[in-house]
Amino acid sequence: MRPILSVLDLPPVWLVAHVGAAWVLSLVSPPVFGWIGDGLGTLLVGLGILITLGAAAQMALARTTVIPRRDPSAMVTTGLFAWSRNPIYLADTLILLGVILWLDAILALPVLAGFAWLIQTRFIRDEEARLTAAFGAEFDLWAVRTRRWFGRRG
C-alpha cells in the first residue's frame, strides 16, 4: 500500500468518512428521531469518547500499541477489555450511531452496518491474527469468554 494510503487507512479516518456520509444522508432523511435522537445521540457520542479514552489508557498502561497493523507487546483482557475484545471499535460504532441519531438521519442507518463490516474485515480480523500469533492459547481463552463486540460468555 502506498504511504499516503496507509495513513488514510485508519479507523478514525473511516469513522470521519462515515460521519460525512451520514451527514449527506441527513439532508434527505425524513425527521424521525426528534429531540429523543438529540439526547440519545449526544449520550452515545459521549459514551463512545469515554470508552475510547478508557481503552486507550488501559493499552498505554500495558505498554502496547493502539495503532492497527502493529504487533502488540501485551494483551489487555481486564477492565473494558473484559467486556469487549474491541472496545475502541465498539466506541467508534457508538459514536457513529450517536451522530446518526443526532442528525436525525434514518436513511444513514445502513451506513452503520457498513462501518461495522468494514472495521471487522479491514482491522479486527488482522488484529486477531496478530494476537493469536503473539499470544496463542491466551488469546484463544480470552476470545472464548469475551465477545468480539460486546458481552461475556459463561
Brief account:
The protein has 154 residues and is mainly alpha-helical. It is built from six helices and no strands.
Report what the structure shows.
This protein has 154 residues and is mainly alpha-helical. The protein is built from six helices and no strands. It has one domain (18-27, 38-145). Helix content is 67%, strand content 0%. It starts with a helix and ends in a 9-residue tail after the last helix.
Short key terms for the protein model shown above:
single chain, 154 residues, mainly alpha, 67% helix, 0% strand, globular
> In total, how many domains does the architecture comprise?
1
**Mean pLDDT across residues:** 94
**Quaternary state, please?**
single chain
Low-confidence stretches: none
**Number of contiguous helices:** 6
Summing up helix and strand content along with how strands pair, one would put the structural category as mainly alpha
Q: How much helical structure, as a percent, in the residues?
A: 55-70%
Portion of residues in beta strands equals under 5%
Terminal residue distance: 41 Å
Radius of gyration: 17 Å
Layout of helices and strands:
Elements: H1 3-8, H2 11-26, H3 34-61, H4 87-103, H5 109-135, H6 137-145
Helix pairs in contact: 2-4, 2-5, 3-4, 4-5, 5-6
